[in-house]
Structure formats: structure tokens, C-alpha cells
Task: structure prediction
Amino acid sequence: MSLEAFLADCPPCPPSLPASLAAFLAKHRSPADAADHGDPGSASNRLSRPLAVVTSGGTTVPLERRCVRFIDNFSEGRRGALSAERLLAAGYAVVFLTRAGSAQPFSSGMEPAEALPGLLELAADGSVQVRPSRQPDLGPLLAKSEAARRAGALLTLPFTTLFDYLTYLKAIADAVAPYGPQAMYDVHAVVANVLDTRKDTVVVVTKGQDGAGPKAHRIDRATQEEHIEDQLVATIAQMHRDFADQMQDR
Result:
């Protein structure tokens, strides 16, 4: 079965999704190119900041059309969430395609199952406030989250099934296609863990250029004080810049 035939047989994505993507991208259009109105045929479509599409978390695969049983490819999505954080800090606009219920950007200071009473408390006047013991952890995360919200730099799209994932990804690819090499989607990078060293070593696999085939890039954490995602994002961002430069030279 071809990909087109498979997607045609999938449940359709929400009708509001293309409009949400278009509105998000419009926020980051270069002012000089606003007159193009996102015309896919325009050679002058430009973004005011680079764009990354991050997919994170596992998928469920229904075993019947009217689903009773399914296979769940489980992933907490922590690497994707941290990578999205680092990309936002590096100046990217981020489309975050995430499994519903998995880790989210700016939540690294909280455990997924952490109860609200462990984070919040009632003040004397009846208002709700963050517990003083948690403020050193949560304060910086909330500040970064608010900065991303004010900039309109993060679009979160939750999915559950493999069909959701693929139809959403197709809609995202169609939406970012007019922006060419500025959209990191063209890098097609897949991040893989190395057995039990997932916090110290990862492998980034890209499609390669000019038909050279897949290429693997090993990344090792330099110090214990940093997250492997810091080097991961720095490496992918440099690959993106190199790719964009190559496309402009053609």
C-alpha cells in the first residue's frame, strides 16, 4: 500500500488544524514578505525565525477498525520535551507534535505523577500559591514558558494513535513546505538512544544529502552538569544552518 493510499484510509485530521498551523506560521512571517500571504508558489516566503517540528512520545496502533485492542509504543517523551525547550531558547519557533499525556516543555522540574498538593498550597487569604520549597525549581520554568507564550513561539498538537500522528505530520509538512530550508523539517533527523546510556549518548540519523543515504551522528554528553539535549539541539541546529546555506548556494 502506498503512503497516499494509507493516509486516505486514515481518519481525517481535525478541520481546524490547517488554520491553526497557518495562523502560527503567519506570526513568524518576515514583515517584508507579508504581502505574499503564504503563497506556496512564492519564492520570497521567509520566516522571521527558523522553525523546528518536534515529534515526541509514543503511539497507539489499533488492531481493529472499531478499536477494542491496540498496541502501545510507550514513551514518556522527556527527550522531545527538553529538546523543544532548548530549541525555543535558541530562537526557534517550534511545532510540538506530542503524545497526549506525555512530558511537555517546561515541565522538567515535575514528575508526571506528582500531585498538586506537593506543588501548591493555600495562602492565608485563600489564594493558591507555589510552595516556597518548589519555587527555585518552578520559577525559572514558568518564566521561560511565559516568554514562549508571549512570543507565540510554541504550537502544541496532541495525538494518540499512529493514524493521528501520520495525518498530523502530513498536515504539518504541507503547511511548512512553502518556507523551504528555513523549516527544519527538511533535515529529517531521527534521535535514537544507545541502549542504557540514553542520558549520556544519543545517535542522530539524518536522510543524508544528494542521495548519499542515511547518515548517523553520535553525540556524547560533555559534562555531568548539562543535559545531553543541550548538545543534541546545538548539533541539529548547526546541521540545519549548514543545510540552509547549501540550499541557498544552489
About this structure: The chain has a mean pLDDT of 78. The first strand starts at residue 51 and ends at 56. The radius of gyration is 20 Å. The beta strands are 51-56, 60-62, 70-72, 93-99, 120-122, 128-130, 154-159, 190-193, 201-206, 215-220.
